[in-house]
Amino acid sequence: MTPSLSLHLHTVRWACALACAAALVGCAVPEWQKPGTPASQIQKDMGSPQVRSPLPEGGERWVYSRQPMGQQVYHFDFDSAKHLLSVRQVLEASEFNRLRPGVDTRDSVYQVFGKPAMVEHVASFKGDIWTYRIYENGSDRQAHVFLDPQYVVQRVMFTDERHRDDDRH
């Protein structure tokens, strides 16, 4: 076999593998899930949710997070018959701005946003800082939720996400 034919076959194999992977992932795109879909089908397509919490009138919310590397957290809301009502991406500044300092807790933050991308500490604040990666106005950003030692939200702050680019060139 000539080197160019071998390279071509290798490229074709990789292209086929990537196409198959894309087709499989395409079945589980949150935004493509249709209202009325049974919860059992959603779980088959998406896997187990990170968080499950009750909704009024017997419904349930499932939270699927793409943290720590992704910048999306999805709420799948189901009615009492376990049929999908809606899918909504909630990892947005407006959702973090709904948090109530002095009222919301670690548990209520977890119910909305799931596990953070990272938990940080700084000398100027006693407590945990839960950091979520978000995408806002075309920029990679971070939302920081400051939790005091009793795990009560004290403030929310947003920063640009720093990337470790090599600036030596």
Key attributes of the depicted protein:
four-stranded antiparallel beta sheet, globular, 4 helices, Beta-lactamase Inhibitory Protein, Chain:B, domain 1, 26% helix, 169 residues, alpha+beta
Question: Which SSEs are present, and which pair or pack?
Answer:
Elements: H1 3-26, H2 39-46, E1 51-54, E2 60-65, E3 73-78, E4 84-89, H3 93-96, H4 106-113, E5 118-122, E6 125-136, E7 139-147, E8 153-160
Antiparallel strand pairs: 1-2, 2-3, 3-4, 5-6, 6-7, 7-8
Overall average residue pLDDT: 87
Spell the H/E element sequence. Answer: HHEEEEHHEEEE
Sheet-strand content, in percent, reads 25-35%
Largest sheet: 4 strands, antiparallel
Number of helices: 4
The class by helix and strand makeup works out as: alpha+beta
User: How much helical structure, as a percent, in the residues?
Assistant: 25-40%
**At CATH's second level, what is the architecture of the domain at 93-159?**
2-Layer Sandwich
| CATH fold call of the domain at 93-159 | Beta-lactamase Inhibitory Protein, Chain:B, domain 1
- Count the strands? 8
Which outline best applies?
globular
Biggest sheet, spatial arrangement of strands = 1-2-3-4
What's the CATH class label of the domain at 93-159?
Answer: Alpha Beta
How far is the N terminus from the C terminus?
41 Å
Write down the Rg: 21 Å
Low-confidence spans = 15-27
Polypeptide structure, described:
The chain has 169 residues and is α+β, with helices and mostly antiparallel strands. The chain has a domain at 93-159: Beta-lactamase Inhibitory Protein, Chain:B, domain 1 (2-Layer Sandwich). Helices cover 26% and strands 33% of the residues. It contains four helices and eight strands. It has helices at residues 3-26, 39-46, 93-96, 106-113, and strands at 51-54, 60-65, 73-78, 84-89, 118-122, 125-136, 139-147, 153-160. The longest helix is centred in the N-terminal third of the chain and has 24 residues, at 3-26. The chain is globular.
